[in-house]
Amino acid sequence: MTQEQMKKVLEIGVKLSSERDLDRLLEEILSCVMELAGCDAGTLYLLDGGVLRFRFSRNLSLKNYSNGGGMAPVPLSRENVCALAFLEDRTICVDDVYHCSEYDFPGPRRYDALTGYRTQSMLVVPMHGRDGEKPGVLQLINALDPEGRVCPFPPDMALVLESVASQAALAIQNVRYTQEIHELFHSFVRVMSTAIDERSPYNANHSRRMAQCGGKFVDWLNARAEERGEEPPFPPARREELLMSIWLHDIGKVTTPLEVMDKANRLPPLQYARLDNHLLDAWYCAKIDCLEGRITEQELESITLSTCWAGELTEEMNEAEFLSDEQLECLADFKNRTYTDRGYTRPWITDEEYAMLTIRKGTLAPEELEKMRRHVVMTDKMLSQIHFSRSLSHVRSWAASHHEKLNGTGYPRGLKGEEIPYEVRIITILDIFDALVADDRPYKKAKTVEQALKILGFGVKDGELDPELADLFTQSRCWEGLYHEEEPT
Predict the structure, then answer these.
(1) Backbone angles phi, psi at 203, to 5 degrees
(2) pLDDT digits (tens, 9 = 90+) for 32-79
(3) Residue 95: partners with Cβ closer than 8 Å, 6 or more residues away
């Protein structure tokens, strides 16, 4: 190996070690090897599923370049010289394929017949990686002398290319291992997120829908920027970081009690049954009092109507998404009503039942709401245990801040304005939108898209949401195909 060749080999090693994209790496490998060998054409094959797949090819004199699309794979049989080199794990060097009795060359002959090219010299080198793995084969064609004439490959070139092929194999393995680790981590995140969602039947697809909708939204933002001649706001690394944050934003809900997450009504079933029994007992006691002459028939009729009305009202309020002032006033009229049962005075509605039934919005009492809100604190705590790569360094803070509002009314830290990153503002809009239109929530009926967008508008008006992002979200229509858009029946 000459000093110049040694220098080129070292330069190739530096180039290959810095590339992280597999396709660009393969292209770089073939280009570097052809330059080092001083040849006119070359092909790189990778082992895949028991065959050699054509990945990249160059032919300088024909000005032909191919990435292997649509090319048939090469079976691992000894009739194909590249497969033979792979199977026998040896370098094959041929001075002229048309005057070689040792090997058959049906592939080059077919290629030459189709293109008018003349394949002559050939050097085929298997790539050797660690642990005896062979990721593929390099096939070089038509070495050129200083005057540009086709000639045999120099005797020492095989050794040089074997060295470079080994570097190439290691580089391919490293990139593949990195991709596998990357995909393993992403798969683990998706599994964790799905497990959290599936923990509650009322939250089964929340994170997945948000990730799908968020991916479509940022892609729309990128396309819009490119149309305007601007830099896309979400290059691949930033897009990945945002979507990772979306997948993990509710991981803290693993610590939220199911009786809080799944609370469909203000009163749990057993507590509501006790309330219903109170009203029934009040009527039975009144009936007995009437039969024994302590109250009149008219008084019994009044109590009958009142208990029936109280039952209908409490059922309605127990299941309502929002409570009106009229409902609250009506319930207050029953608050102090009592009945006497075997000498004991009992309330129609207990203080605890009254407190739960008068929750103005949603189904959770203040202490239950606090338990639910703690999921963002737990999200932050749990994600603090994960060593995120530098490219994912914001995932923890973005995921744990999705309930912050621009006017400072959010939680857990009450961040305001510019304290809330652009990405978090997007996650917040996605989270609210999904919560509104999702048809799997126990405490409310699904909103139509039109209704949800109107509510987002109220959030903008109240200073909670980013007005520009909310407008862009509406323009993007990124929810299409993911949610119903008609009034649910």
Answers:
(1) -140, 30
(2) 889 888 999 999 999 998 899 989 999 999 988 887 666 778 888 877
(3) 120, 121, 152
Higher pLDDT, 103 or 10: 103
Helix (H) or strand (E) holding 65, with range, is: strand 64-66
Residue written as token pair 């999904």: 434
CA–CA separation, 95 vs 151, rounded Å?
Answer: 8
Tokens of 147: 């005057």
Nearest to 426 by CA among 218, 204, 256, 185: 218
What whole-number distance in Å separates Cα of residue 387 and Cα of residue 84? 45
201-210 pLDDT, tens per residue?
666 688 899 9
Distance CA 272, CA 265 (A): 9
Query: Which residue type does 180 have?
Result: E
Residue 262, token pair as written in the block: 């799944």
Q: What is the 3-state secondary structure (H, E, C) of 209-255?
A: HHHHHHHHHHHHHHHHHHHCCCCCCCCHHHHHHHHHHHHHCCHHHHH
**By three-state DSSP, how is residue 67 classified?**
coil
Distance CA(221)–CA(234), nearest Å, equals 8
Spatial contact of 55 and 26, defined as CB atoms under 8 Å apart: yes
Output b/e per residue, 356-392; b: 16+ Cβ within 10 A.
Answer: bbebeebbbbeebeebbbbbbebbbebbeeeeeeeeb
Half-sphere exposure in the Cβ direction for 303 (13 Å, CA): 23
Contacts of residue 219, defined as CB under 8 A and 6 or more positions apart, other chains included, come to 234, 239
The torsion defined by the Cα of 425, 430, 436 and 438, in degrees rounded to 10, comes to -160
Residue 191 neighbours by CB under 8 Å, 6+ apart = none
